[in-house]
Amino acid sequence: MKKEEENNDLDKSFYHNYGKFVIEFEHLVLSIKICIFSLITNKGLSEPEFLRVILADQTALPLKTKLQTLISIHFKENLERNKLLEKLFTHTEKVIERRNEIVHGVILNISNEKGFLFKDKTNKKGLNPIEQDVDSEMFRKHTEKIIETKILFEILNSYLNQDGAIFEHFFSKEKLDSLNINS
Fold it and tell me: Which H, E and C letters describe 26-41, residue by residue?
C-alpha cells in the first residue's frame, strides 16, 4: 500500500471518529428530550404532539436547563436526589460546551489522524481562543463520555418514579463523581 493510501485510511478513521462523536451527541440530546417528554406526559399532557412542537428546534443547553428545572420540581421533596442529579447536569453542561467548541471550531491540517482545532471564544476579560491538537483518539474518548452520559439519562428516564434504592444504585454520589470529560 502506498504511503498516500495509508494516510487516506488514517484520515478516514479521523473523520469516522469525528462523525461518531457528532452522532452520539445527538443521541444524548434525544435522551434529554425523552426525559422531558416522560416527565410532562406523566403529569397529564394528553396531546404529546404539543410537546414535540415545544421541544422542536431546541439546542442542547436549553433542553438540559429545561430538564434540570423539571427534575428539581419533580424531586422538590427530595433535596438529596436533586443534589445528586446536579452533578449529572453540571457534567452534561461541560459535555455540551466541549462539543460546541469542537463542532463550531475549525479543524485544520488533518493528516495521519491528527489535526489542529482553532476556535475563538470570548469572556469578560476578552478573547480566550482555543488552540489545540486533536486526534482520532480524542474523539473516541469524548464519544465514550457522551455515550456514558446518554445512558445515565436513559436510566433516569426509566427510574424517575421508582423507589429510592433503585435510583441510588444508578445515581450514587460515587457514580456521579466519576464523570469527567477531560479524562
Answer: HHHHHHHHHHHHHHHH
Please tell me the distance from the alpha carbon of residue 157 to that of residue 134, in angstroms, as a whole number. 34
**Weakest-pLDDT range from 10-14, 33-37, 39-43:** 10-14
pTM: 0.83
Residue 116's beta-bridge partner residues? 108, 133
Please provide the DSSP assignment of the chain as one string: --HHHHHHHHHHHHHHHHHHHHHHHHHHHHHHHHHHHHHHHHTT---HHHHHHHHTT--HHHHHHHHHHHHHHHTTT-HHHHHHHHHHHHHHHHHHHHHHHHHTSEEEEEETTEEEEEE--EETTEE--EEEEEEHHHHHHHHHHHHHHHHHHHHHHHHTTS-HHHHHHHS-HHHHHT--TT-
Q: Cell triple for residue 126?
A: 476578552
